[in-house]
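# step 3/5: fold
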Amino acid sequence: MIILHVVEPFAAGIAVFVKSLTETMPDDTHIIVHGERKQEIAASEVKKLFPKKNVRFIKWHSAQRSINPLKDFMAFQELLKIIKRLKKRSLLDAVHLHSSKSGLLGRVACRMAGVENVIYTPNGAPFLLGGNSIKNFFYRQLEKIGNNWGGEVICCSASELEQYEKIGIKGSFINNGISLPLTTTTKSPVGKKKFRIITSGRIVTQKNPALFNRIAAYFQEFDQFEFIWAGDGENRSDLFSSNIKVTGWLTTEQIKKEVQQADIYISTSQYEGLSFAVLEALSLQKPVLLSECVGNKDIIKRGLNGAYFKNASEAIIKIMHYSNNQDMLPIMGAYSKQICASEFNSFQNFAFYRQRYQRKNLSAL
């Protein structure tokens, strides 16, 4: 089977998502049509992470992040030509669209090219960004327009699906997952003195760095606390508290090492699909402290592996509690890995995507 993946933001969690799909389907061929965000990571570097045996890449030159009618029309035309060419050469059994822009342009292009076996995974509903009702309304309308052009919506968490159903879009969900490490280092490095709270990813509005900064600022006068943001981004200036360390962009292995050396993992996001960074923290046996938002809501089980918070005050209280009761952290971390193995294992969960690709092909015969 040949699966075409259309990916505009070829970076961060979506790149991890597509990579996991290619790894869990080694006997299938994956063609990835991708954009590039050089300010985050060059596409050439992302490609190195993918299996070489069953993955091919096509550069989507016109694709870009921001909404621009002229450039988006050019991106649509380019994508339509690619899909038509692959279909004509019988190199296309299923199309999987990743992220909102790819989802909209891709569904229109597939309809016009006569491709019916189409799946769209938002990986973060764009209409959930807090504080801007006009922009959220605009994105809701775009999602509805895209849905009218066909394709099956498969969200990556139950709470994300719930939000799509609220705006009248039917679909289903398959939990995101990761490949679990065979062994996990849980000990803190020799000489560690500070209680480390870490997050990772792009420093953008969706991740709410301003909230992260407010939480960290409370602990500025306490020398034993250290806050780390492993990543970089356009909103880096929001992280100005003196006890925050911003690492800049790191490799996957470097981020893992940073997380391993932390005591707890925190997410201040306004919304998620289902964060791969949080799942990685679970696999590394870290307790997680998460904002109570879409995507995050699906991760903590009965308080065994962490806690939710609604505002900075609640997060601060939890951090103080964990700092004063550090003996409980390894136990919570063990639950984190157990939950990750049972509910967020990529080889278990992503096998369902292959069934969807195949089922749609069989129904078309």
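# step 4/5: annotate
The longest strand covers residues 2-7.
# step 5/5: archive (pending)
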